[in-house]
Amino acid sequence: MRSWDVLIEFLRRNKIYYFSVILFFLLLFIVFAYIPFAQRKETYKQYILSELRSATGLDIDVDSSDLSIFPFPGIDLENVYIRNDNILLAVCNRIELDISWVGLLSGNIELRSVQIDGGSLRLQRKIDGTIDLIEFIKNRENNSQSEKISKIEISPEEFSTGLDVQAKDFFRIGLKNVEISNFTLWYTEESHKREYKVYFHKSKASISFYEDSLDLLFHGKIDEQPIRFESTASILDFPIKYEKIRFSAVLNVEDLSLSLLRDVFSFFPLADFSQTKFSGRIAMDKEEDSPIHFKVRSQTRNLCYKGGNPFGNVKTDVDFDLDLFGKRINFPYIEASWEGVAKVSAKGNVNWKNRTIGQFTIRSDYGDYHSILKISKLFKYESPKTKYVARTISGPPSLPGVFYFNVDLNNIYAFKHRFSSIRGDAKYIHPVLTVPSFHAYIYNGEIVGKAKIFPLQPKMEVEGEAFRLHIDKAILPYVKERIITGDLYSKFYLETMIKDRSRDTVAELLLNMKSRGTIEVLNGELLGYANFMIPVLNTLGKIISFSGIDGRQVQFSKLTSEYSIYGNRFRFTKLELNGSGLEVDARGSFGFDNTIDMILNLRLGGQVVGKALKIPILYKGTFGKTIPYIDPIWLGSVFAGSTLLAPYLIPLGGPYGGGVAGSVIGEYVRDLWEGVKGLFGGSEEEIKKQNRK
Q: Can you tell me where the transmembrane regions are (predicted)?
C-alpha cells in the first residue's frame, strides 16, 4: 500500500497524474475494443448492414463497402440502391455512415451521421394525385440504362395536421447529422406539365448533442437557380409545441429567375416571368411565445408582358409579424420604390379570426399611376383549368374580406396631369375599391369628390367638383401652346376603363373615357390659336371699323359651358363667353387626337357698323394647323344681298351704292372660293374635305 501511495505522489509531483489516467483508459479501449473490432472487421461490416436494414426497414443493396474505425466507427457504401418492398427509392454514388462507439459496444446500432455524395432521384406527380418514383440506374452487367417505375398512392388523409411530435419518433435511430452533396432530385408535376430539378451542392441537417436544437443548411440550385438557405431551431420541450419553438432562418438568392415559380404564375395569362430576376434576403426568427418576425429586402427586375419588352426595377423592403394562432399579420414597415416612377411607404395589419379585415396607411413621395397600373395588369388572375382539383375544407362560405386604406399621396402623375397631393380614405370589398371622399390639390386649385375603382377590370368612376384651377395648365397636356387663361370651376362625372390591354395605357383610358358636366372660367383671356378675332379682323377689318376692339387679345369676364366626353372627343353643347364688348355662343367638339370641329357666333356691341352683327367663325381640321375662318356661306349671303353695307350706301345712289358693296365683299368671297389658304388657312380642296366630314 505504501508503494502505491509513493507512485501516486510521484505522478502528481511530475504533473502526469491525469495524463496517466487517460493513457490507462486508452490502453483498455485499444485492448478490449479496437483490436477485436479490427480483427473482425468484415463480420462487423455485415452486422452493421444487417442492423441498418433492420432499423430502417429498407432493403439496402451495395456494390462495395468499407469499414472505418478511427476516430469513430463507420461504414462507406459505394453505389447504393435503396428499396422498400421492391419499390426503388433512390440510387446514390456514395453513402458514409458514422456509428457511436457506445452503441456499437452495447450491441445496438446508433447512427451518428450520414453523408451522401452523388446520386439522383426522380419523382413524378400524376394528375390523379399519385406519385411515380422513376429512377434511371446503371445496369451492373452491361452498363446500359434501364428504367424502374413504381407507383405509390399518396392520400392527404394519411397525414396528420397536428403539431405535436414525439422525441422517440424523430430520433429513433439516434441520427444527429445528415449531409448531402452533389445529389440531384427531379420532380415532375404532370397537372401543369412542369419539371423541377433540385441540385444539392452542400446541404446539411444536424441536431445538437442534447437534442434541443436543429440546424439546416441548403446550398444548391433549383432549376439552375442558385439558392442558399440557413436555419437554426431550438426545441425546448417534448412533445414539440408551436408556442415554445425558437428558431431563425435566412434565405439568400441572387438573380433568381421567377420562371422557378411558373406553376403559380401560370394563372396570370398576360405576364411572362421567364425573364424576371429576383435578388434579395429573407430573414425570419421566432422567440418563445411570440409571432414569427420576417424581414424582406428584395429587388425585382425585368417584368414583362407576353410578347413585350422587359421593364421595371422595383426594390421592396418589408417587415411583418405573422401570428398563426392569433390569425393576424402586422406590417410595421413597408417601402417600395421604382426609381423615377414611384416611391411608396405603408404600414398596417390584417387579421382573419372571423372575417378578413385589413387596415393600411399609405404614403407616397411620388408616383406614376399609369406605370403602377402597368404592373398591376401583369397579375390579372385566371383560374386554373385542370382536371386535378385540390382538396378543400368543408364549411360555410366566409364573407368577403374588407380592407380599409388611408392615403396621403404626393406628386402623383395620372391622365397626363401631375397632382401635388391626393388625400382620402378608401374601402375595398371584392371587386370594388370605394373612395367615399378624396381631396386633391393641382394647378393652384382643388378637386374634391368620390370614386369607385374596379382594379381587376380595370375601371374607374369619379364624381366631383373643381375649384380655382389654372385652366392653361389643366389643358396644356392636350395642346401644344397656351390658348386660354383664367380660373376654372367645374362639376363633373367621369368614367373610363381599359378594354385592350395591349394598347398604351393613357391612350386606352382616354379612348374609353365618358364624362359629362359643366365648366366655368372666370377672368381669363383667349390667346394664340383660340383668338377668334384674328380671322374677323383679317377678313372684315378693311370693310368695317371695329373701334374699341383690340384684336391682339380677347379678354373675358366669364366663360361657361356644358360638356360631354365620349368617342375620344370633348364636346361643347352650349358654350357662352362675355366680356370686353363681345358676346359669343359656340358649339362643337375637340378630339384627343387634336382634331377640331367648332362654330362660334360672334356678336359685337359698342360703336360698330350696324345695330346687330352676328359673325359665324369656323374651326375645322387639325388644331393649331388649319387657320380659323369666317363661314363662307355667311359671306356669300352678304355679297348676294348687300346685307351689311347697302343700307348705308343708298344715299350715294342706288346702283352705285350696291356696286360698291358688291365689289368690296365680292372680292373677298371670290378669294375664299378660289383659294382661301392665304386668307383663312386652307385650300379649296381642303375645305371640301372638311365640309364632307
A: 16-37
Report strand pairing: 595-604 vs 614-622: antiparallel
β-partners of residue 230 are: 217, 250
Provide the number of structural domains found in the chain. 5
The C-alpha cell at 361 is: 396607411
397 within a domain of the structure (yes/no): no
Determine if residue 324 is left, alpha or beta; phi over 0 gives left, psi from -120 to 50 gives alpha, anything else beta: alpha
Among the candidates 625, 647, 675, a domain finishes at 625
What cell numbers appear for 491 in the block?
A: 362639376
The reply to whether 277 and 153 lie within a common domain is: no
Task: Write out the three cell numbers for 630.
Answer: 369666317
Of 574, 607, 625, the last residue of a domain is 625
Helices (H), 57-134: 101-105
Residues 61 and 133 grouped into a single domain: yes
Residues 196, 81 share a domain: yes
What's the rounded Cα separation, in Å, for the pair 359 and 347?
Answer: 8
CA distance 307 to 376: 17
> Could you tell me if residue 134 is inside a domain?
yes
Contact present, 539 and 481 (Cβ < 8 Å): no
Task: Measure the CA–CA gap between 403 and 365, rounded to whole angstroms.
Answer: 23
Q: Residue 202 corresponds to which amino acid?
A: K
Report the 10 Å Cβ neighbour count for 338. Answer: 21
Same domain, 13 and 115: no
Residues 79 and 160 placed together within one structural domain of the fold? yes
Instruction: State the Cα–Cα distance between residues 393 and 330, nearest whole angstrom.
Output: 26
Which residue's C-alpha cell is 399609405? Answer: 362
* CA Rg value for the chain: 43
- Residue 42: CB partners within 8 Å, gap ≥ 6? 67
Q: What is the pLDDT of residues 469-503, one digit of tens each?
A: 999 888 888 777 888 889 999 999 998 887 776 66
The DSSP letter of residue 21 is: H
CA angle, corner 298, sides to 292 and 302, nearest 5? Answer: 145
Tell me if 597 is assigned to some domain: yes
Q: b/e string for 181-220 if b means 16 or more Cβ within 10 A?
A: bbbebbbbbbbbeeeeebbbeebbbebeeeeebbebbbbb
Q: Which helix (H) or strand (E) holds 204?
A: strand 194-207
Regarding whether 221 and 88 lie in a shared domain, the answer is: yes
Quote the strand ranges of 471-594, DSSP E: 484-497, 514-526, 554-566, 569-579, 582-591
Residues 190 and 678: their CA atoms lie apart, in Å, by 75
Stretch (H or E) spanning 11: helix 2-13
- Give the CA distances from residue 581 to residues 45, 486, 523, 557, 609, in Å, rounded to whole numbers and listed in that order: 115, 18, 14, 11, 14
pTM above 0.70, yes or no: no
Burial of 237 (0-12, 13-18, 19+ CB in 10 A): exposed
Average pLDDT of the residues of the chain? 73
Residue 48 in this model has a pLDDT that exceeds 70: no
**In whole angstroms, what is the distance from residue 235 CA to residue 307 CA?**
51
- Whether residue 411 lies inside any domain: the answer is no
Query: Could you read off the pLDDT of 221-268 as tens digits, one per residue?
Result: 887 888 888 877 776 565 667 777 788 888 888 888 877 766 666 666
Whether 476 and 612 map to the same domain: the answer is yes
Question: Cα–Cα distance between 679 and 584 in angstroms, integer?
Answer: 22
Neighbours of 513 (CB within 10 A): 20
Of the candidates 372, 363, 446, 368, the one whose C-alpha atom is nearest the C-alpha of residue 405 is 363
Work out the end-to-end distance of the chain between its first and last CA atoms, rounded to an integer number of angstroms.
Answer: 132
Neighbours of 63 (CB within 10 A): 10
> What residue numbers bound the domain in which 280 lies?
245-359
- Secondary structure element (H or E) that encloses residue 640, with its range: helix 632-641
d(CA 530, CA 553): 10
